[in-house]
Design brief:
By secondary structure, this protein is α/β, with parallel strands linked by helices. Among the domains are: 49 residues; 191 residues, 3-Layer(aba) Sandwich (Rossmann fold), CATH 3.40.50.150; 48 residues, no CATH class. The chain has 13 helices and eight strands. A four-stranded mixed sheet has the order 1-2-4-3, with no helix packed on it.
Length: 419
Amino acid sequence: MSAQLKQAYDFLEKNDGKKIIRKVQDLSQRTSQLHEKINYLKVQRELNVFGDDWNAKKKLVDSLYEGLESRNKVKQSYMANYSVPKEHFHWNVAFLDGTQYRGKVDLFVGGSPCQSFSLVGKQRGLDDTRGTLFYEYARLIDEIKPKVFIYENVKAVTSHDGGKTWKKMQEVFNELGYAFSWDVLNAKNYGIPQNRERLFVVGIRNDILLNEQFVFPEPIPLTKTMKDFLIDNASGGYFLPKKGVEFVTLEKNLSKKFTQIDGDIQLCQKKNQQFNWHGDFVFQSEEEAEKKGIPDLEKYFLSEKVRKYVLSSGTKNFYSKPAVDLDIARPLLTTMHKMHRAGVDNYVTTQGRLRKLTPRECLRLMGFSDSFKIVVSDTSMYQQAGNSIVVDVLISIMTSIITALGTSNFQEVKYNEQN
């Protein structure tokens, strides 16, 4: 077996093996895409039988994913944070008939997966199955006919394939019956210290009367840095070891005011008191910290091996300048859980140790408040944060839209308590 492996290795070495492997991987992915397309057409034929029976259609689509609830991390996060009836959660946008929502939707927000265009991805564009989801988004606009739509994607869409991809996408938008504007906005210009440039397209239906012309929001001064978004009270590095607890709680030390627990007035601070267990302490159990959502930072610190890797500058094919503790964060990637080098991902130092950002910190850097519930694993939360739209940017765009349309053009949506 080892001789055969060596023979295969020698063959690849002589024949530009890396190039062959890339071609095989590309062929495998394209075959998978073809298989996915065939399955899609098969399901669509079955759905067409039901006509306008939306409940029957949804029942069929839901049955395709039966037993996969635990794998749908997006649904878990969404249902934990928003009051959306289950009948309005759809597993696959490609199987959703938007006509059932016509006349019921004021604003339609979304975008197609960015990996088809992102500089971090393979940039296959609209040839990628994920890229063709752009057409599904456009189809839903045409079927739902919302008053306003907002489309978001990476900046690289505009330059992909020499601008041909973006030209084709604009042609599609033009055919929908909407007056649309587009711009590239950076989160750091709208209150969030993250260098995240994203393409935004705002379309307003042609029959909507405007109070004034829509214009994208003007940038505002950035008053905060990434450090302002970091967790300042984390359990892992702050709970005392057993020996420390014994010293702090010793009656002699408490009576002589060497230590104090849950005091009303702080003891006079002494130099290096944090290193010799003198001074003020508060009692908090690890269970209490967990209830308050205070994470244990220990698992986010990097080992020496990983630290050396992330601080390296990369290879000759991909060079990046490593830097940590930035004032303005690099773009949060959906793949940040893989811990790219410090020239790509964000790393910070806490008590002299290098660590990655926690999921909560990533959510903060996407504009989410701490009331947003984290109900999935760290890996899933990193992916969801990286896939999101920065909330503050979206709010700024919505403010401009409401100014242009006026509040009378929007209706309040309420679900009854049974839902």
